[in-house]
Design goal:
CATH architecture of the largest domain: 3-Layer(aba) Sandwich
CATH class of the largest domain: Alpha Beta
Structural class: alpha/beta
Number of helices: 13
Number of strands: 15
Largest sheet: 7 strands, parallel
Strand order of the largest sheet: 3-2-4-1-5-6-7
Distance between the termini: 47 Å
Number of domains: 2
Shape: elongated
CATH topology of the largest domain: Rossmann fold
Order of helices and strands: EHEHEHEHEHHEHEHHEEEHEHHEEEEH
């Protein structure tokens, strides 16, 4: 199966630079073909590509989007037939619509080729300008992107970068947006973002799963005083007869102390038996408070009594109770300030019951800070750069606005 990666982006955004980085750091040991064209007559650096072992098919005579059905389709088919590549990289014209290129590739999808990723490279310093002046083309590239890679973020003021991300989020609320300077990231990190494996949603899902697993294994004993087994074994409540209670599946009658034998061939309902006799019933039953004290043989299902402890003992509570909150940011934090902020998550009245939190955030000292939180335990340490700053919080009855204000105050 040949994967197709589309690199969209306005004129001069840095598409070629990104492709070169991925070739050097993420596409090793793959057979690659680049289909490239630019608005005008100047193509990509063919010399670099040849040295890297990349086959280049250039289409400088016109925009890919202007010849979708003809030249582009033929070029793609010829590439597949001639080179049988592991991956095809498509760099369309900077003034082309990403949606048109995606549609052209999808028309050719088969058992041999599939559309793998669609990334838009955007100059962070020019987002507002291009949206205003080239909305039809520029906005299309943003709206259809599976991931957005911002270029030239290294020297941008923090607030200006944050404003750019806000504009992009208005057009595309779900795509990962890489705000970290490329030099701080590996090609593999960028490729993972392009392929959608490191989204905020996926990180929240992973953290939620780990928290649920921990809660399941460490669930505290129920305070009701009953033993709640999940394999359909139920303990008798209030029986003091000292006799054997046999059932078709493992459970015990509640409150029987009558002293007599009750044989049930099948389902019946016995309501507070105190007759002192042997009772044979041929109908469906639910045992309620029998006080005879004798043997009850049940070879059927029965309706058990609701436990008054208030817990559901047939389902994990995690799925019903836990919440998640996630946030992406370009803000920078000092280690001391971040530590103090994370420690405040202990304040249940202010933030809700926070069971787990983790994050990767840029530091004001030029490094990256990773933090982990569980009740009573906080760690903040230097770590590797992430594609953008992220915070993930899992808990119960979370006060999301308060948590957001906490991290926004840096």
């Amino acid at each position: 199966m040949t994967k197709v990666d589309i690199f969209s982006g306005f004129l001069g955004a840095g598409k070629t630079t990104l492709i070169k980085k991925l070739i050097q750091e993420a596409y090793q040991n793959e057979t690659l073909v680049l289909i490239e064209n630019e608005f005008g007559d100047v193509g990509i650096d063919g010399g670099f590509m040849q040295e890297a072992g990349i086959q280049v098919t250039e289409m400088n005579s016109g925009c890919i989007c202007c010849s979708l059905v003809g030249d582009f389709g033929k070029a793609l088919e010829e590439v597949l037939k001639t080179y049988h590549p592991d991956r095809i990289l498509i760099e369309p014209s900077g003034v082309g619509k990403l949606s048109d290129v995606m549609e052209a590739v999808r028309k050719l999808e088969s058992g041999e080729v599939c559309l793998n990723s669609c990334v838009t490279v955007a100059d962070a310093s020019k987002c507002k300008l291009y949206m205003k002046n080239f909305g039809e083309f520029y906005n299309n590239q943003i709206e259809y992107a599976g991931a957005i890679v911002l270029s030239r973020t290294g020297q941008m003021p923090e607030q200006k970068l944050s404003d750019a991300v806000t504009l992009l989020r208005e057009r595309n609320p779900v795509a990962p947006i890489i705000t970290t300077p490329w030099a701080e990231l590996s090609g593999h990190q960028i490729l993972e973002a392009m392929e959608g494996s490191v989204t905020l949603a996926s990180e929240l899902e992973t953290l939620m799963h780990h928290t649920q697993e921990q809660a399941h294994h460490e669930e505290p004993a129920c305070s009701c005083g009953h033993d709640h087994d999940h394999e359909h074994e139920h303990e008798a409540h209030g029986c003091s007869c000292g006799h054997d209670h046999d059932h078709g599946h493992e459970h015990e009658a509640h409150g029987c102390s009558c002293g007599h034998d009750h044989d049930h061939g099948h389902d019946h309902e016995a309501h507070t038996c105190s007759c002192g006799h042997d009772q044979d019933h041929e109908h469906e039953h639910e045992a309620h408070g029998c006080s005879c004290g004798h043997d009850h043989d049940h070879e059927h299902d029965h309706e058990e009594h609701t436990c008054s402890c208030g817990h559901d003992h047939h389902h994990h509570m995690a799925e019903e109770v836990f919440q998640s909150w996630g946030w992406e940011t370009t803000k920078h934090y000092s280690k001391e300030v971040l530590l103090a902020m994370v420690e405040r998550l202990e304040e249940e009245r202010t933030f809700g019951l926070v069971l787990r939190a983790k994050g990767m955030l840029p530091s004001s000292e030029g490094t990256w800070l990773h933090f982990d939180y569980v009740p009573g335990e906080v760690s903040v340490r230097e770590g590797t750069p992430a594609i953008t700053g992220r915070v993930c919080v899992i808990g119960a009855e979370l006060h999301e606005e308060a948590i957001a204000r906490l991290f926004e105050q840096a």
